[in-house]
Design goal:
Blueprint: E1 2-7, H1 21-30, H2 37-56, H3 61-71, H4 95-107, E2 115-116, E3 120-121, H5 127-141, H6 145-165, H7 179-191, H8 195-207, H9 223-243, H10 259-262, E4 270-275, H11 300-312, H12 314-317, E5 323-330, H13 332-338, H14 354-357, H15 361-371, H16 382-385, H17 388-394, E6 397-401, H18 403-410, E7 421-427, E8 432-437, H19 452-463, H20 469-480
Helix pairs in contact: 1-7, 1-8, 2-4, 2-6, 2-19, 3-4, 4-5, 4-9, 5-6, 5-7, 5-9, 6-7, 7-8, 7-9, 8-9, 11-15, 15-17
């Protein structure tokens, strides 16, 4: 990896294209280096993972809304259109709207992959816009599954490299500002575009996808699921404009009125962004990790620890009266974003939205501790959140930042990077229960790392309520053959719900 030094520049410095971060990112996208076998295998896993969580969320309000918006638009004339999760595979729409609908379906349950470093990310969000464009142009450009795999590897590489170096949340900018550029770059790889065109698309995608983090603060709204889908949609449109010769603000990152100077660390700031050199394999996807549980990633290890404690101390932990307090000693992010350090009263409110509860580690830890399990639907139900013994214990749970867990959270050493912490349960009789966990069980270094078998099982489990058994097996067959798919098979990277699965689901009306 090479470190690209990025700083702000005055306009009279005339920073050359070759010195700009967006140009370097475009260079990664145009590098024709072959993919390693383990990277190809992981891309397939993440395509399956995305579809699994999309199937689980297919009847949820934001997904129904986004799907109805997408299907209200006809196929654009430049290709064959793209499929929408849940709809008949023959019913296509324009690629930017398919990216929108599928992006919301993938993101709604907060249940797919993650990468955490200086910034936070869900790099699987790159997949919907890339697949949508591939389906749309497969026939006219002869695109194959191998092209899709290479494009997805580019999207992961660029998003993860940006996340390693540039913090957005510190300045209350939403993390999708790294997704717009990465998705645009991935589409550039897919289509074999030249560096100048991808450069312009990256700049436009970044410029149109910077937004505040209020979407993840306080009473969290349904926009949380839409934000990355919007970034994917903007990336598709940015590539389209760039292909037509339209240019972007330059230099988008380094300009004196650019992103770094006014949205991030200011005119005197600098960053070192790690990027693969020419001919160096794109392997960043292997640094990311998926979720076994439908909750914010920092909650994954805590759910596993709570399940363990439930099994070890069933007679103590089933009664809130036996517990004086529960303190989670953890990282800065966990404390201030999903912990009591956020100072959000909604994180302790039984009437809070599902989106808010999945960003409340006090709630999540309480339910997992009491139930010894976590379910993407039942654990968030209003009945579960209002259970009196749960509310009583929930309000005894707090978080504190521990500098060592913060250091490990930000460590560049994969062997010590951690997203958990230490729990101290003070009992009413004066005793204590103390335990800790570094990474989730499903993490590559966890107790039960996810491999193909687990990804496939996750899809089968989450899709069984909405898809027929034949449709489940058909999709898994197509997805696992992704690297060998021909242009006529890319349309199979979707699923159709079973007859009757969406009966009673109301289709909202809007403008379209």
């Amino acid at each position: 990896m090479h470190l690209h030094h990025v700083r702000t520049h005055r306009s009279d410095e005339n920073l050359d294209r070759e010195g700009q971060l967006a140009w370097k990112l475009a260079g990664v996208a145009t590098d024709p280096v072959e993919l390693d076998d383990d990277v190809v295998d992981m891309v397939v896993n993440r395509v399956i993972d995305n579809a699994a969580v999309a199937a689980a969320s297919i009847a949820r309000g934001p997904v129904v809304s986004a799907r109805s918006q997408a299907l209200a638009h006809p196929v654009s004339i430049g290709g064959d259109g793209a499929t929408v999760f849940g709809a008949d595979a023959a019913r296509r729409t324009s690629p930017e709207w398919a990216a929108w609908a599928n992006g919301v379906a993938v993101r709604e349950l907060d249940f797919h992959d993650t990468f955490l470093a200086a910034e936070y990310s869900h790099p699987g969000d790159n997949i919907p816009p890339i697949v949508a464009v591939a389906q749309h142009l497969a026939a006219s450009r002869g695109l194959t599954g191998r092209d899709v795999v290479r494009a997805i590897a580019t999207g992961y590489e660029i998003q993860i490299d940006l996340v390693k170096a540039i913090s957005l949340h510190k300045h209350k900018i939403d993390h999708v500002a790294h997704l717009g550029p990465s998705a645009a770059a991935g589409i550039g790889t897919l289509l074999g575009l030249d560096q100048e065109t991808i450069f312009q698309a990256i700049g436009q995608a970044l410029h149109t996808t910077t937004a505040t983090r209020q979407s993840r603060k306080g009473e969290i709204s349904t926009w949380k699921a839409h934000a990355p889908a919007f970034a994917g949609k903007m990336a598709v449109e940015a590539v389209d404009r760039a292909m037509r010769g339209q240019t972007s603000p330059v230099p988008i990152y380094e300009g004196e009125d650019g992103v770094i100077a006014w949205l991030l660390d200011g005119p005197d700031a600098s960053y070192d962004v790690p990027l693969p050199g020419a001919g160096e394999a794109k392997r960043a996807i292997l640094d990311s990790y998926t979720k076994e549980h439908s909750a914010e990633y920092q909650a994954q290890a805590w759910i596993d620890l709570a399940r363990k404690l439930h099994d070890e101390y069933p007679l103590i932990l089933d009664d809130p009266e036996r517990i004086e307090s529960i303190t989670l000693h953890t990282s800065h992010h966990t404390h201030f974003v999903i912990g009591s350090g956020a100072n959000d009263p909604q994180k302790y409110d039984p009437d809070a939205s599902r989106e808010t509860l999945d960003h409340s580690i006090p709630y999540i830890f309480t339910v997992a501790l009491q139930d010894g399990a976590w379910d993407h639907a039942e654990s968030y139900s209003p009945e579960r959140a209002h259970r009196p013994d749960t509310v009583a214990l929930w309000r005894k749970v707090s978080t504190v930042e521990d500098p060592e867990w913060t250091r490990r959270y930000h460590s560049d050493d994969i062997a010590e990077k951690a997203f958990g912490g230490r729990v101290v349960i003070k009992l009413a009789d004066g005793g204590e229960i103390v335990d800790e966990i570094a990474v989730a069980d499903a993490h590559p270094l966890g107790a039960r790392p996810f491999a193909r078998e687990q990804y496939v099982q996750k899809f089968r489990t989450l899709a069984e309520w909405a898809l027929t058994p034949d449709e489940i097996e058909r999709f898994l067959d197509v997805a696992q053959r992704l690297p060998e798919l021909g242009p006529d098979e890319l349309g199979g990277l979707t699923f159709t719900v079973a007859p009757g699965a969406l009966v009673g689901v109301e289709i909202p009306e809007g403008l379209f």
